[in-house]
Amino acid sequence: MSAAAIDVSGLRKVFRQTTTQQDVVAIDRLDLHIKAGELVAIVGQTGCGKSTFFDILIGLEQPTDGEIRIGGETPYGAFNRFRGRIATVFQQDRLLPWRTAVDNVCLPLEMLGLQETERRERAMKWLGRLGLERFVHAYPHELSGGMRQRVAIARAFALQAGLLLADEAFGHLDEVTARELRDTFITLARETGSTAILITHQLEEAIAVGDRIFVLGKSARLLADVSVGQWDPSEYGQLREAIQQTLQTNQAHLRLTTQPD
Prior knowledge:
This protein is an alpha/beta fold. The protein has helices spanning about 50-55, 100-110, 115-130, 145-160, 175-190, 205-210, 235-250, 255, and strands at about 5-15, 25-35, 40-45, 65-70, 85-90, 165, 195-200, 210-215, 220-225.
């Protein structure tokens, strides 16, 4: 599938608390646009609605109001048509312990009905790209945490999806492994031309993604839309501080609303 543009218009999500019967606004009138093939990061403090946005994006939740359109279709309204078109990498690898690495990568391809030959060819290709050639027949308990996450990334890319989503996918790993896997994810996403969204709370990771950073306040209100390419790498420290202050005050920092010098 070719990369798809994402349009978010007036998106609102309200949950009703079962104990108090009070409404909780998780997302409030969110508007944003992601171009096809773009790599973006979404940052925000805990409770700002990042996970809710993610669930709506993959069709698990229906908006209360407004909509998300991916390539002109809504993921909730056209859930079945999005099978195989969105690939996700979560914080936990979610590998099945009774399946080998290659069989775990094959699993979503089996669910799509691909022939065994094609399933295994894709799985072996992406496990190789992730440096796991010698571990294709290993079980999850025989792999390190970083290696298991590599299998999860291979599983996502094997789908050849137009949209790649990584939800806090590297934050639980040690710094060296996290940086290596993040760089690999970004490189492969650019090679495939897929649209990619990285949800993270780590500002260094967000800046490293490369294209844009959406800074969300509560409740999932867009505080800033940062084009990273407009900042010189020597200014990344200032950029990080401006984003941090924006998150702390829930108000856009002046440097994020004006062009860098």
